[in-house]
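**User:** Everyone, produce a chain:

**Assistant:**
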Amino acid sequence: MRSFGSDNNSGVHPRILAAMAQANSDHTIAYGDDAWTREAEECIRVMLGNSEIEPWFLLNGTGANVVALQACTLPFHSILCASTAHIAVDECGAPVKLTGAALKEIPTPDGKLTPSLVLPHLHGFGFEHHSQPKVIAISQTTELGTCYTPDEVSALADLAHAHGMVLFVDGTRIANACAYLDLSLKEITADCGVDIFTLGGTKNGLMFGEALIPLHKELAEHIRYYRKQTTQLYSKMRFLTAQFIPYLTEGLWLQNARHSNAAAQKLHDEMRKIKGIQITQPVQSNAVFFILPKEVTDRLRERYFFYDWDESRNEMRLVCSWDTSAEDISHFIAYVKQLTLGDKFFSG
């Protein structure tokens, strides 16, 4: 079944499968003490131009986010994020349960935090009756498919550092941001003052796996223990890290992201031609948010799987993947046209 439900729904890039198969020979030391993991770590150091970085590999996005936040907080701290953030909405309370820190959710119109939105929440420092603000957490791209520019990231980093705080970037789709902005990974992380971030793979052609990258040694100090306690230390690590070698060295991370971004833009361009469709967010990555009458989307679901976003106004989300084809888009658009042309909402 082809769908636009999520980039999690797509398969694994053939080159990634080949890399895993090539790693499936002989024996090696478990838990990451192997040649594939060493090479994958070095790939990230080269991309960021920093030989001192200690990358860590984890199984999934929620685990990577939780371990990153554990590295930054104590139980009396608070984490500030957009109300739509993955850590606030889609992780079943794991960040709060496993860090003990409070999560402060800030409403935004487009999924992006700004200094003016964050500043009113920066109070109570040194007052034992209040949780202590410690982390500004952003998603790149956001859950609404929007991208932070380098200037926007730098402004948040400056605000965090001025208050003795840390800027964390959930980068499960950070490749899509690099593709949209036409910038390197370094230019939208280290060069902007980011303190710690994740580099996603699962949503961009890998079978599984995310990398966690602390950019300061003090944040890396206890990650090995948090990773183990959070059940994110994979024993046969070579199969996780072998994926990252072609993913990074052969440019698959950016190639796949560019493809999914371009597919979403094509989908958007075709949808906006159809009478009655309201596009609700700018398309800056691989997601399209739209509104149609419920009687239309109910019938659309009979053939395609996708998620509700804001049920109160029947807002839906479509997501393109590394393997979304022109045929996927044309078939979807043809069916939407069939439904809308015949619907009483649009007739007369």
User: Anything to note?
Assistant: The chain has two domains: 15-252, 253-339. Residues 252-271 form the longest helix (20 residues).
